[in-house]
Amino acid sequence: MSILYRPETNWSNIYPIPKVRNRNDKQASLSVGISKTSPKDQFTLVKARSLIKGAYSEAIEVNEFVRKYFRKDMDLTKKAALEEDYLTNYLPFNDLTRKMKFLVDVIHNESQKELSDLGNEVQKRIHKLQNPSDCKTAKKLVCKFPYCGLGCQYHHIGNCLLAALGTNRVMLVDYSSVRYPGIRKVFLPLSDTCSMEDLQKQVEEWKGELQESYEHIQVVRLDVRHEPSRNTRFKGLTVPKFLQEKIEFLHDDPNMWWIGQIMGYLLRPSPRISVKVQEIKKKLNLTHPYVSIHVRRTDKLIEEARKFEIEEYMDPVVAWYDSQVGNACNYTRRVYVASDDLASVIPDARNKYPNYDFVYNAVDDKKLLKDMKQTVQSRQTEDELVAIVCDLMILSQSDYFVGTYSSNVGRLVTQLMHSSSDATYRSRSIDHRMFYHGGLPLTYRAVEDFSGGKGELSFSAGETIVLTSFVDSPSYKGFGRNEAGHDGSFPMHKVEQTLTFVQYPALNDIF
């Protein structure tokens, strides 16, 4: 039976599975409605869910490993023939991956309602904190908009909002040095009741001390790009304490869900942008399912990242489409492309992948060829800002995303995907691991012993491993430091990520 995956698919209509409709029902189920079950049953269920998701993740890795090395150094003709004859039709992992994907989707579908309700409540709390009834008496945290690219700007402002939530303050943003002149026209206001014009008190600088030191001060300024200012417990890759008993039932990556809520609030599109996005999707016939890729080039290649060829973006795309459908399905494999170098990316992609429909947000091919190899300066106009934001929204609404996490935009897309659902298996970076600039380092706990060879890290079960490099490592391998201070690579299936829970006062009474 061939199944085409869509995020909104009701899998129970395809493979009927009993659901727990009554939260008091203690029947064993994949549903998240287990709050009334015994601790032993809850532990068993969490373990089963974890094993299913872990097995699915490992199946994806094996599938991509086989694809990558079995086809290495083949010319395009041989690759295409092999993909059609073997990788698509006969590779057992494809069928295995589809079956495991079904189980993961059952878990996610059962979690989605509760996850959406939780996200809505968090958004209400952020909105309430940002909109006090009396702005003059409300405590405030002022952040200056940094002068850098769009993704960089909002990751820094995200740090500021985390600090505001942690200290129960309204976050106000100083736009005096903003890089994009129309930035306040493309997103909804961060506050409807407060603005920089409301500042009447002396502003004191945040020196990175704990929140208690500032309780008597009404207005504090936080320099989000100044390293000492990040000396705060409220930062990226911390999770609110109130989620500790619940979030791992609902989401595979709680860190990403929480950052998704922050970015989801900051990047709420204005009505103008929402209409524009729908117009673009209609013009391009961009209906689900579709995959998106973000190809970052130009100035990014100077010192921050290396150039990736189109094949490196498309390998995960091809694997995703192959794993979602069977040969009996007749449909268009559509890929939405966002890039600062469309003039070279689009022709290259169409030449090497003629069976895929590559679409992009451009007026026409003449404009594409003449104007779309943009300079950094041309991306700072209001028109280009609108184009970038529309790209961001269309990328984040796709069924599957491939990009680079060395790019702030690549990370933003994935974070936005997590703001409304569990997108753990719907995005892929071809270079760095996910990280949050100014946040905590990623830490892991060893689940079993590992005796490493040359250049590898050895550790015992229960030991803490700190990831020390995010750069260009395959997802099945990490590079970190053990408790003895030794560095080396290690297999990711030997560890599990640990979470750091922090008390965010603005969210304390959600449950």
Quick check: average pLDDT? Answer: 77
Strand content: 5-15%
Residue share in helices? 25-40%
> Number of helical segments?
13
Oligomer: single chain
Strand order of the largest sheet: 8-7-6-9-10
For the biggest sheet, the summary is: 5 strands, parallel
Can you tell me the overall shape? globular
State the end-to-end CA separation. Answer: 43 Å
Sequence of secondary-structure elements: HHHEHEHEEEHHHEHEHEHHEHEEEEEEE
Low-confidence stretches: 1-37, 363-377
- Structural class estimated from helices and strands: alpha/beta
Our Rg estimate from Cα atoms comes to 23 Å
Count of extended strands: 16
Overview of the structural elements:
The protein has 13 helices and 16 strands. The longest helix has 39 residues, at 92-130. Helices cover 38% and strands 13% of the residues. It is globular and about 65 Å long. The strands form 4 sheets. Strands 8-7-6-9-10 form a 5-stranded parallel sheet, with helices on both faces. The chain has a 5-stranded antiparallel sheet with strand order 14-13-12-11-15, with no helix packed on it. A 4-stranded parallel sheet has the order 2-1-4-3, covered by helices on one side. Keywords: Glycosyltransferase, SH3 domain, Transferase. Residues 137-431 form the GT23 domain.
Task: Offer a concise description of the structure.
The chain has helices at residues 39-70, 76-87, 92-130, 150-167, 183-186, 247-250, 254-266, 271-283, 310-324, 342-352, 365-371, 382-396, 408-420, and strands spanning 140-144, 170-174, 204-205, 219-222, 239-240, 291-295, 333-339, 356-359, 400-403, 427-429, 443-446, 464-467, 477-481, 487-491, 495-497, 501-502. The radius of gyration is 23 Å and the shape is globular. It has 511 residues and is of the alpha/beta class.
